[in-house]
Design goal:
The chain is mostly beta strands. It has three domains: about 1-110, Jelly Rolls (Sandwich); about 120-300, TIM Barrel (Alpha-Beta Barrel), CATH 3.20.20; about 330-420, Immunoglobulins (Immunoglobulin-like, Sandwich), CATH 2.60.40.10. It has four helices and 28 strands. The protein has helices spanning about 135-145, 205-215, 260-275, 310-320; strands at about 1-10, 15-25, 30-40, 40, 45, 50-55, 60-65, 70-75, 90-100, 105-110, 120-125, 150-155, 170-175, 180-185, 215-220, 250-255, 280-285, 300-305, 325, 330-335, 345, 350-360, 360-365, 370-375, 380-385, 390-400, 405-410, 410-415. The longest helix is centred in the middle third of the chain and has 16 residues, at about 260-275.
Length: about 425
């Protein structure tokens, strides 16, 4: 697949940056860029133009500067980051250093690759001896592997000194442990402080900007955990809504150390309420692992992510876009194309199809913006969503007979096709 962006530039455009947007398909592993403009000179003076590329998560991906062959991808050029190009809307910034006369330019991009998605299992909330955990980073890594995880994030309290000890299956993170709630930063490899230089709390908006600047994501941990005197600062006491998608990239709706269970259930159904109010925020689970024996290891609601490859940028993209579900090992699911995070366009009727394989009996429920569908012990179905709005969603929750969630999906979004 090839696309072209072309246009004209004039002397008045000198010292200005023009931004152009383009779409990268989901199967791409490399983007080959050819850039040309004429004339290179006007009289005896050089017309100088360079390009900077940013991916769909607004990460800088590389700079085209007088290079004949420029590639973004796994085998990228020296001036590009070597990683799988994320799908979605990218931008190229045309940096007009000096334009002496009118210039015609053409940016030609060839997309190559045949990437395929598969499911990976990850734990997003762990602690080591670098804060209040019982395991060193290597022991934590081994324990995660032994429990059939493909990766984990190290999220010690207000500390990142353990990052240097991470193994191949570990990624950098941090739990911002404030007086008014806890937040998880995932993917940033530098320390982020929730306080300013005077010891005063920073606005959450600023913390999110810092997290994104360091190529990380920001989310709320265990928003309904009990606070003082049970756990100082653990419950969410900020005036900011923990489900606000403008402030946070995700929210932890299941925490492994939280008891009683109703506290987790409050987080789950508050998240659904936020979705119904138009908040497109992804849900995650966290073991909040401090020790292999605490809590009881018999129940673990794990994050399952849809990735092309096991790379940090892929994981963060999947978290941000809700390409995931939460489940125990006793439950597997086939979405038949209705994978979480996907936007499905429909004409007359929106349909949601699923098939559960489970060792437990239980209850299946589907939540949309306006309805709660109780399917009981129906573990395979194609459901026609009736009372659905033009911009809607479907969340599937499967609980055991005692009401404990064994599977929670992030939303599939439905968008009605409108006639032009």
């Amino acid at each position: 697949m090839t696309i072209e962006i072309s246009g004209n530039l004039y002397p008045k455009d000198s010292k200005f940056v023009q931004v152009k947007y383009f779409e990268v398909p989901c199967n791409v592993s490399e983007i080959h860029v050819k850039f040309d403009y004429t004339p290179k000179k006007t009289g005896n003076f050089q017309n100088q133009i360079t390009l900077s590329f940013y991916d769909s998560m607004n990460n800088f991906m590389g700079r085209y500067d007088n290079i004949k062959n420029f590639t973004i991808g796994i085998n990228g050029s020296p001036s590009a980051f070597k990683s799988l190009p994320l799908p979605g809307t990218w931008k190229v910034e045309i940096e007009n250093q000096s334009l002496i006369g009118m210039v015609n330019y053409v940016i030609k991009m060839d997309f190559e690759g045949n990437e395929e998605y598969k499911w990976y299992t990850g734990e997003l909330h762990t602690h080591s001896i670098h804060s209040d955990g019982k395991l060193n980073v290597k022991e934590l890594s081994d324990y995660i592997k032994a429990n059939d995880f493909d990766f984990f994030f190290l999220t010690d309290h207000n500390n990142v000194t353990g990052h240097d000890e991470l193994c191949a299956n570990g990624f950098p993170g941090e739990e911002l442990t404030t007086f008014k709630g806890h937040m998880l930063v995932l993917g940033a490899n530098q320390f982020i402080d929730w306080k300013d230089e005077n010891g005063l709390e920073k606005p959450i908006k600023l913390i999110k900007e810092e997290s994104h600047y360091l190529h990380g994501l920001l989310g709320v941990a265990h928003p309904f955990m009990l606070s003082e005197p049970i756990c100082g600062g653990c419950g969410w006491k900020y005036a900011d809504n923990p489900f606000d998608a403008d402030l946070f990239d995700f929210v932890e709706i299941w925490n492994g150390v939280m008891e009683p269970k109703p506290i987790n259930l409050e987080a789950i159904y508050s998240w659904i309420g936020a979705l119904r109010n138009g908040m497109h925020i992804s849900a995650t689970s966290g073991r909040d692992l401090h020790s292999p024996t605490d809590p009881d290891g018999s129940f673990w609601l794990k994050n399952r992510f849809l990735l092309r490859r096991l790379e940090l940028s892929e994981i963060l993209y999947a978290i941000k876009h809700g390409m995931s579900y939460l489940s125990t090992d006793s439950v597997t699911v086939d979405f038949h194309g209705n994978t979480p995070g996907k936007v499905i366009e429909y004409d007359d009727e929106a349909k949601y199809k699923f098939e559960l394989s489970t060792a437990s009996s239980g209850r299946v429920m589907i939540f949309t913006k306006n309805d709660t569908l109780d399917l009981g012990q129906t573990y395979s179905a194609e459901v026609s969503l009736k009372n659905i709005s033009d911009d809607d969603f479907a969340v599937l929750i499967f609980t055991d007979d005692g009401g404990t969630p064994l599977l929670i999906t992030n939303p599939v979004y439905f968008k009605k096709i409108t006639e032009v």
